[in-house]
Amino acid sequence: MATPQPGIGDWYRLKGGALFEVVAFDADDGTIEIQYFDGTVEEMDIEDWEAQWEEGALESAEAPEDWSGSVDIESGDEQGRGADSYGDDRDIRASPLEGIAAFGRQQVELFTSGVLLAHPGAIAPLAHWTLFAILAAVMALRRRFSDAVWSAGVLGLAVLTGTTNGVPRYTVTIFPGFVLLFELLETRPRVRRAVLALSAAMLLLRSAFFVNWHFVS
Q1: CB neighbours of 27 closer than 8 A, spacing ≥ 6?
Q2: Nearest Cα to 169, choosing from 20, 24, 39, 13?
Q3: Exposed/middle/buried for residue 18 (C-beta within 10 Å: 0-12, 13-18, 19+)
């Protein structure tokens, strides 16, 4: 079965649950620009596109009912309507419960669809979210309730988006978590060295991805 060419404006879904739209395709450079439902923009090589289709990790999908809020276009640009109709659409919002349910489904699909075996790095956003959730629990146990509430609120916002894509953009604001990590590692030199080594390796890896035109959140 031939791999379908990416169509601008068409929607697709990773087997891990992430929904995205193709917003640009440069056949000469062999690059595809995609935008996830939460607004995150990423660039994909045509080789990666074809490989994911062959592995069954990518599939066509229907456009979400209210997708205009996640991309940087006016609804009138896409629908051919004037500014008068904008007021009719401005109150459309996705239900918070739908976001929570989508977040849960994405994690279930991550472990049941086989995408994790094909792409182990797909676990990184969930692992990142889980780390800060554990830190928030430790804050509560240490009676740092304001820090715990702040952390839980930020993590909750990430859940409401319905996807783990872009989680680091949320957790970077959980400054009490970084303070707590320092405190936990200060008296554990061996663990601290291991964490620093792992962090350095991940920094080099992510930097290599970035300079090769891969999106790094």
Answers
A1: 46
A2: 39
A3: buried
Q: Give the distance from CA 95 to its chain's centroid.
A: 19
Instruction: Provide φ and ψ at 53, rounded to 5°.
Output: -65, -45
Integer Cα distance of 163 and 64 in angstroms: 14
Residue 86: helix, strand or coil by DSSP?
Answer: helix
Asked whether 41 and 34 are in contact (CB, 8 A), the reply is yes
Q: What is the residue type of 92? A: I
Q: Which two tokens stand for residue 111?
A: 């472990």
In the block, which residue shows the tokens 């692992």? 127
Amino acid identity, position 134: I
Containing 58, the helix (H) or strand (E) segment is strand 58-61
Classify the phi-psi angles of 95: left when phi > 0, otherwise alpha if psi is within -120 to 50, otherwise beta.
beta
Q: What is the pTM of this model?
A: 0.57
Q: What is the pLDDT along the chain (217 residues), one digit of tens a residue?
A: 567 788 888 888 877 667 788 888 888 888 888 887 767 778 888 888 888 888 877 888 887 765 554 444 444 444 444 444 434 444 444 567 888 888 888 888 888 877 777 777 778 888 889 999 999 999 999 999 999 999 999 999 989 888 887 788 889 899 999 999 999 999 899 999 998 998 898 888 878 877 876 666 5
Beta bridge partners of 13: 19, 59
